[in-house]
Amino acid sequence: METSLFLVFVILCGCSINAGASATQIQSFNTNETNLTDLEQMDFRGLVYAANISEEFSLAAADVFRRKFANRYIQIEQGDDYEVQVSDGSIIVYRYEETVLVLKHFGSHILDLRIMFYDESDQESQLKQIITLLNQKCSNLTKLSIYSSENWDTLEDVQRIFYTVKDLAFFGRYNKLGSETLNLNEMFPNVRSLTLRYVELKDYDSVNITLPNLRIFRLEFMEISDRFEFKNFI
Predict the structure, then answer these.
(1) Strands 90-93 and 85-86
(2) Domain coordinates of the chain in residue numbers?
(3) Which of 133, 154, 168, 197 could form a disulfide with 220 if both were Cys (CB 3.0 to 4.6 A apart)?
């Protein structure tokens, strides 16, 4: 019986690739006769949905993720029509529903996270929810990259202090960086590498960036006001 139920579960996960099976559908699966050791044999996408069945499955699936996938970077992109892509070095998640599940169940084990939103005009609420989950779940990040293309201060919603982040990149065409909207010192005090690309530095008198551990600083394709200066940099 265990084997047949497991096969049904795998089929459900496989069908969801085309049919977009919801977490509710997966939750309705009878887990009482399912062996948790079956999680070891699941692919990444099956593991994501299995984690949402119950607290017990969530903990077990998170442990499998830690051992099998935590060495890859997780990239979040827009694209509900695309399937999860898994390679030796990366996992790219396109569907918003799956992104939420990945961050909810595996966030504490993610070490390298890349958030790529190219057009937030219709999906700003989704991006804000992703940032909320980033605050709540991703406590052990060492690398964080955020790309947002619209004139929207993405990092304003980051509330957690990320003591473990050593490598930070913020790509934000038409976004603005100024002391009134963003305090890198408080959010990422231990950053060693900082990259700012396509970020307009606001024409305020100064931005105070005091990052004592910073060793690499990159400004790429920047618009810097004549009035702009860094104070206490490094």
Answers:
(1) antiparallel
(2) 1-68, 69-234
(3) 197
Q: Where are the alpha helices (DSSP H) in 20-95?
A: 23-27, 44-50, 55-68
pLDDT digits over 163-207, tens only?
999 999 888 754 555 544 456 778 888 999 988 777 665 544 444
CB 174 within 8 A of CB 151: yes
Tell me the residue type at 155: L
18 pLDDT more than 60: no
Q: Calculate ∠ Cα 143-164-222, nearest 5°.
A: 45
pLDDT score of 80:
78
CA distances from 147 to 113, 199, 234 (A): 11, 10, 24
* CATH 2.30.38 holds for 69-234: no
Cα 220-223-225 angle, rounded to 5 deg: 135
Q: What burial letters (b/e) apply to 133-153, b meaning 16+ CB within 10 Å?
A: bbeebbbebebbbbbbbbebe
Residue 129 contacts residue 99 (beta carbons within 8 Å): no
**C-beta neighbour count of 24 within 10 angstroms:** 8
Joined tokens for residue 136? 């709540």
The dihedral through the CA atoms of 10, 107, 54, 98 has a sign that is: negative
pLDDT tens digits, one per residue of 95-108: 999 999 999 999 99
